[in-house]
Amino acid sequence: MNCKTVLTIVSMFVFSYTNAQQTNSPKFGKGLFNLIGKDSTWSMNMGARVQFLATAEWDSNKEGLYNPSSSMLVRRARLKFDGFVLSPKLKYKLELGLSNKDISGASEHTGNAPRYILDAVVKWNFHQNFELWFGQTKLPGNRERVISSANMQLVDRSLLNSRFNIDRDMGLQLRHHFNLSDKFIVREAFSFAQGEGRNVTVGNLGGHQYTARLEFLPFGNFEGGGDYKGGDLKREQTPKLAIGTSYDFNNNAVKNRSNQGTYMVNDIGYYETNITTIFADAMFKYKGFSFMGEYAYRDAKDPIAKNSDGTPTGDVVQVGSGLNLQSGYLFAKNWEVTGRYTNIALDKNITGKDIENQYTLGLSKYIVGHKLKIQTDVSYLDIPTAANQLMYRLQVDIHF
Fold this sequence. Notes:
Order of helices and strands: HEEEEHEEHHEEEEEEEEEEEEEEHEEE
Shape: globular
Number of helices: 5
Distance between the termini: 24 Å
Structural class: mainly beta
Largest sheet: 16 strands, antiparallel, barrel
Low-confidence stretches: none
Mean pLDDT: 93
Strand content: over 45%
Number of strands: 23
Radius of gyration: 22 Å
């Protein structure tokens, strides 16, 4: 799929819009347009968003800052489509990424093509509170990853997410929820996936990936799905808490971060090993105050990749643990101050990597909630045996 193809698809949707039964013009942030078929057997909402990011970085030691660098880019540029087919019980979602960051990673495993497709999934509510998903979408892993990049509390996700997240994959998901009491909600999710990430076209390598997640909401649902949005923009009038845990098992994985990272190539093809990743997380919100905490742990049956004769290939599974603590407060006129602490402790005996501690302080101005906002933050990365790093970022996010 190239840019010309994407533009053709968009043109087709616009043409369909002019022939639809209803021509509603949504409020800003609710999509570009909403379509409902003449016989009400289908619907489509189309949205678009873009993030502009400027970054400046320096190395740091006792003498001061040095080796400055800077960059400006379109961090994300995306088109989103969602709706139902035949019945509201059969929903779908399609999300395309158009920026270089979104489509990077082309390789022989993706047909040497840009990775335009982020999500392409159908969701069937086949019985009461049971829902079956089929397609490519985010796995039920750590909370920070499942939170949309459009709804983040800081400029970008933490180091824990970049080191441990299990991201998107192709497969099946079964989801269910029930009430223990009038307010206490329990959610369950189980996923069976290919285990190599998104847009893979070469067929399944190694085994498959199995993910299970359990969530508890003792005080009921958050306003506006706030358990998966950064900051307390709804200013919850009663305390709200969500606690979740995920277990992920990638059987005979061929990548060094479960279904993410690089392929572990050896003399006979690919090195395979079982990789386990565990997440525990929580979200709390009350009257403008928010807190999110996450812990991640990854282990592997044999983390050192080997050739057929037992000699190391140089690749290793990124085993270890991570901790992320993040808190913010929303002031009057929707200004928010946020602080974050992240600790990454990969197994140095295996990975050769030192402990990383990152401290981040952010400021956000929500003009129209997460749909139109300006965010800036400064981060200090402390690595005991290497140069420390200072990073400043400024981002503008607009979401139609």
